[in-house]
Amino acid sequence: MTDANRFAGTTLASMTTVLPHPLPPCENARIALFAMRRMGANGLGDARAAHTLFTAFGQGFRRPLILMRALMADLAGSAAGTIAIAPCCCARMTPAEAALLSILARVETAPDTARLLMTDLLGVRRVDGVLTSAAAVAAAFADEGRPVTG
């Protein structure tokens, strides 16, 4: 085995450790993930995130966009530590991203599970405000015919 092959194998192994989850099969979850990644990396006013939501939702894009911005602001303001996000081009997800998408998928149907996931993600006990923001985002996606499923 050459040094290049050993290095490539190590990189792949470490990448699956850092990014253990594959992208979700749900297109709506991938849209939410892209918007979260863009806003997390480039700020709440990221134009590509807004364009993606405009493309996905058409004229009804404002509500999902504003609520996604509010969720991202609530997450940033409430987290006890950092929330790891991957670059937009990554074909895998961090555990935090997988948890966020699970929260969006379960906040209406399994609120206790969503609360536990949010508590673990943020590292704080009181997550009601952020959980409400997540519920609003999930409802906005569902109301426009794009429910986030896990």
TrEMBL record:
Pfam families: DUF6628
InterPro entries to which the protein is assigned, alphabetical: DUF6628
Highest taxon in the source lineage: Bacteria
Protein name: Uncharacterized protein
Organism, as annotated: Sphingomonas aerolata
